[in-house]
């Protein structure tokens, strides 16, 4: 994650002050993790690549690790695929994504996947800021430090409470960032959909309308099953609408409006940032849930890996692609042993084709596919 002014100062100081500045994860990887954690972090950079085999520009995915200084190729983790493709908007690609895994002190394999979708004139800056801060806020949340020596405690209630507390801090930080500088920043923000898997439990947190599904597949041709793990936060939802209108917001045409110029409309009822719209009821409180993955799930105590996968994606996937179709495409590729990266790329292409069949205003499309049950290690350098 791009270096900012804070890279020159102590990370703990900026963390304590909650300054909404860019962080340097190359430095923070060494602060958060020890080499023994075998931590690997993947994240979308500001650089893009394009070519004959890539239909539209895609963000370059960078990979860091705590084991040593050498970087890893983005495709070196076969059980994870991260793709972020630019749409037709004038702004830069406003989506961001990250994935990390590490080995905790008790030998448990912990992993986390997250997608953020920026919106508004400076949405790309807001989503990048969220991507840079959220891993630190979650892993360094004091409630996570309830069991000495462990980054993530065994007690699931402690993890649940820590994620909720980290998102509260993230919301405060993003509000500060949204208030800094010129006017359009107050109308800029980001969604956030996060999954943290530890010791057989999948903890999720969601703000906005990015979405997450959990799929199940087998080695045969049986149907791919799926379950939607998040709910979209939309203004027309009765409870969301009641809160917004009680605070002076206007809900019309499936958007939240201010009753003043420039009459900006936001098509979601919860987001990070968007300080002008938060003043009229838009919220940054996430839905936080925990589900049991069963024996053999990532980080669990069981033996064989469970035939499951997780898809975390921005609304560029979900607006014109059903959860069933997305699960089927990803599940089939994993059944055939093509790996999570190919599955993610195919899903993004499906979403693009579905979008272009309905609308010329192609959105940015970002997807993470995690094949659950794959043993997370600090891989050897390839190439």
From TrEMBL:
<dbReference type="InterPro" id="IPR036457">
    <property type="entry name" value="PPM-type-like_dom_sf"/>
</dbReference>
<dbReference type="Pfam" id="PF00481">
    <property type="entry name" value="PP2C"/>
</dbReference>
<feature type="domain" description="PPM-type phosphatase">
    <location>
        <begin position="79"/>
        <end position="372"/>
    </location>
</feature>
<protein>
    <submittedName>
        <fullName>PPM-type phosphatase domain-containing protein</fullName>
    </submittedName>
</protein>
<dbReference type="InterPro" id="IPR015655">
    <property type="entry name" value="PP2C"/>
</dbReference>
<dbReference type="GO" id="GO:0004722">
    <property type="term" value="F:protein serine/threonine phosphatase activity"/>
</dbReference>
<dbReference type="InterPro" id="IPR001932">
    <property type="entry name" value="PPM-type_phosphatase-like_dom"/>
</dbReference>
